[in-house]
Predict the 3D structure of the following.
Amino acid sequence: MLVILVVSFCLQAAAPWYVTGEYHFSVLAVCGVNPEGTRLWYSGVDSAERVRAGKAYEAALGVTKLLTENIPQSILQIAMMRETGANNMVYLSVALSLLMAFKSFVIGVQFFCSSEYADRGRGHEELREDE
């Protein structure tokens, strides 16, 4: 359980930095700042690059949290429930948790498959071709 926690924590800190290239998104992830709230906060900024970075942060954590936190936690929760014989409300809790995590995962995958993510850095390549 501790290994899952540490690996999940490290991957959730590394993913936003890798996707956005900005370390402060890793700090936000480690501090537990809500990715959807961060995207809304950055939507008021004039810079299109900042808005894209906020969306990339949300997408990175949506994908990473499902794979490193929600699925392992659900597996451990169900295994513990089978040992202790808890009631069926735990199954409902696990199902709702996975459903909400899957929603964030889909939003993340949609962002990574979009042209908005694929076009990142294209301006620099066009400048090099002109020279």
